[in-house]
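User: Sorry, what's this?
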Amino acid sequence: MTAAERTLDSLKPYPAYDSTRLPLVPLIPSGWEVRPLQSLCSVKARLGWKALKADEYVPDGYVFLATPNIKGASIDFENVNYISEFRYFESPEIALEEDDVLLAKDGSTLGIVNVVTHLPRPSTVNSSIAVLRTIKRLMRGDFLRYLLASHLMQTEIEKVKDGMGVPHLFQSDIKKFALLVPPVEDQDAITAFLDHETGRIDELVREQEQLLEDLAEKKHATCFHAVTQGIRASTQLTATDHPWVNLSPLTWRRWKVSRAFGALGSGTTPPTDMGDYYDGEIDWVNTGDLKDKPIYSVPKRVTSDAVRDYPTLRQYPAGTVVMAMYGATIGKLGLLTAPATVNQACCAFVEGGPVLNRFAFYWLLAMRPFIVALGYGGGQPNISQQTIRNMEIIAPDRAEQLEIAAYLDARLAQIDQLVLEVRANIEDMKLLRSTLITAATTGKIDVRDWRPA
C-alpha cells in the first residue's frame, strides 16, 4: 500500500450529508451547495475571427498558450509561441490573471484543466482554451481546477461535448455545469490536501517514467552490443569502417543487404472501392501493424482475387521480417508468424541468404536510429527500397546468429516484462490520483483536519 493509499484509507466521511438531484452525487456534505458554473465564474474564450495564424507569431513578445502547455502538473510558460502587443490587447477578456482556470475545449485534449498559479509575463490563450475566472468569495480557482478534473465533471464534459470529427465544448454548456460548492474554508483545505497528495503521486509517476526511459536505453544497448560484438566473452574485436559499427568480431562477415537475404520486396494497396479484394482470407500487413514483435494477427485481409490481379501483392512466407519505410512509423518492425501480404509502405526481408531473419530482426531493431536518419522528405520522411538494399550488415555464421537471437529473445523479454510492470504501476498511480481528487472534491472524505505527515 502506497502512502497515498494509506492516507485515503485513513480519512473518514463528513459527519452529515444532504440529498441532491445529481445522479452521480446523490449526497453532499451538509453546508455544501450545488450551483451552476455561470453563477460562480465568468467563461471567456478567443473569438473565432480573432484566431491567429502561425505566420503571425513573433520571436519574443506576449505568451500565447496552447493546449500542450496546460497538460502538465503546472502550466508550461517556456515552450510557447509569442504574439505581438497589438494581438494581445485585441482580446483583453482573455488576458490571463493569477487564479484563472484554463479548460481545453477542443480536440483530443478536451477536458484537460489547469490553473494559473503565477504569471512570469503577460499571457493569453489560443482558441482551444476557455478562461474561467471565479468570484473569489464563492469559488477558489485552484479548487475549481481539481473539481473540473474529477470523475464527476469529466463525465459531464464527455456527455455534453459536440462534434463528430473534432470534439468541441461550447461555452454555453460550460456555463450550465452543476458544480459542488463547499464553503471557501473547505475549498482551501481540500486544495491543500490535494496539492500535497497529488504532488507525491506525480513525483512517483515521474520516477517510474524515468525508469521506462532507462529500460528503453538498456534494451537498445543490449540489442546493439549483441548484434555488433556478439555474446561470446572470448571474441576478438577489430575496428571497422562501417558507418554505424565501430568494432566487430574478426570472424564476422560484411554483406550488402541486397545479398544477405533470399529476396527483398514490398506490396501494394488494391483499389478500396473493389469489394471483391477485401475481407478475404489472406493477411494484409500495414505499417500500423508493426510493433517490433512477431505478428500473430492483423485487422485487414485481402482475397485471392486481389493477389491474382495484382502481382506486386505477393504472399511472403512465415519468418519474413517486415519494416516500415514511410512516415512516422519508419523503421518499425514485425516478424510474420504466418504467410501474409503487405502494403507499399512496407519492406519485406525474405530469408534465404547468409543472414537469418531472427538475427536480422534484432540487427534492424538495433540500427533503427541510423535507418531513420536515412529518410528523406519533409515532415513525413521516407526510406526507399534501394537505400535499404545498399545498407550493409555485419553478421557471424548461422550457428552464432541463432545463439545471439536466442539470447536476445530471452533478455529482451525480461526487459519487456519489466516495462509492462512499470506501465501498470503508472496506471495504478494515475487511477489513485483520480480517485483522491474525486473523493475530496465530492465530499466523500473529510480532509478539514488533515495535516501533512
Summary: The first strand starts at residue 17 and ends at 19. Residues 13-205+426-441 form a domain with the Adenine-n6-DNA-methyltransferase TaqI; Chain A, domain 2 fold (CATH 3.90.220.20). The chain has twelve helices and 23 strands.
